[in-house]
Design a protein that fits this description.
The chain contains six helices and nine strands. By secondary structure, the chain is an alpha/beta fold. It has a domain of about 150 residues: Rossmann fold (3-Layer(aba) Sandwich), CATH 3.40.50.150. The longest helix has 12 residues. The relative contact order is 0.20.
Length: about 220
Amino acid sequence: MLKDLWRAETLASALPAQLKKPGPALQPQIRSSHGLEQFFSSIQGQENLSLLDFSGASQANISFITSLGYRIYSNDALRTMEEAFGGSGDFVAQQSDPERAAQFLRETLDFPDQSFDGALLWDTLQFLEPPLVDDAVERLHRILRPQSLLLAFFHAEEKAQQAPLFTYRIVDSKSMSLAPRGQSRPAKYFNNRSLEKLFQKFSSVKFFLTRDHLREVIVRR
């Protein structure tokens, strides 16, 4: 039976230490998003859809998505990542531990086949090392229904040692609020070719490169 799509997970005020570097508090920024616009325009007019949101329980996201008549399942994937791979060991190395990797996949993507009509992954995937990121994408392919979309963000600077972390909140179907959460090292650099390979089982991949060095990716199941 599908997990309760209304489950809200408590969002702590600070990110886990493994995934951030402390810095001064910054104000959220609002910006338009071609990827978000295409995601919602693709499902406009449809009813009784179920969407997966990796940004954690957010009243803004819940209110916007339910106002469209859709159901939402919220999970703070970065927090789940820290619970699985954090602690005293090396964050990256522990992603290769089969038991820890299985824990992460179980907590984030353990759903029956074709449970969702779309997924908002935000920037989560860029912090997963291979082969775990490949396993996560395989799970996504399985739990998404045919022709559904997923939206994911990747840092677009190849030589960058740190990527900014954000909390993503939906303002409307074309824009979002980005609240800074610190910085962390991406697991690897994903260019267009490597992203096409990552999502090779999906039917299409489309890219939007923004001025703030964020590659927005729309992938169709």
